[in-house]
Amino acid sequence: MSYSAPVRTVHEKEPDQVILEEIGDLSGIEVLYQNVLVAVYERKEGMTAGGIIAPAKVFEEDQYQSKVGLVLKVGPQAFVDQPDMKYPVFFHGYAAKPGDWVVYKASNAMALLIGVRKCHLIADVYLTKMRIAHPDLVY
Question: What is the arrangement of strands in the sheet containing 117-123, beginning at the earlier edge strand?
Fold first, then answer.
């Protein structure tokens, strides 16, 4: 698939590969209930696909206002319709799965570190806005 984005960075390695290498083995982590574990995508300094050199300072806010993450693990009740609740929840067949890039509001998530990588634990209902093919598509 070919696409362009104004802030797409030229990557030596694909961002999902870098994240998975930094995270390592997740077998000791069990995500419960309707929660989803997401690794935060933080853009790095370097050249954009448009040839602009972007310093790290440009992307500093990604540490706090991140919008994109890579789904690492999904709880067993995540993305399951809940019609009998006081406020019913329906996903209409949507389910984010490990390896998906998702867009979300950072303030809806609980921040934590796994190894050296910033991650978020977030309820499934907050991951229903957008799924994207590559993290540089959203700024």
Answer: 110-114, 117-123, 35-40, 68-74, 101-103, 130-132
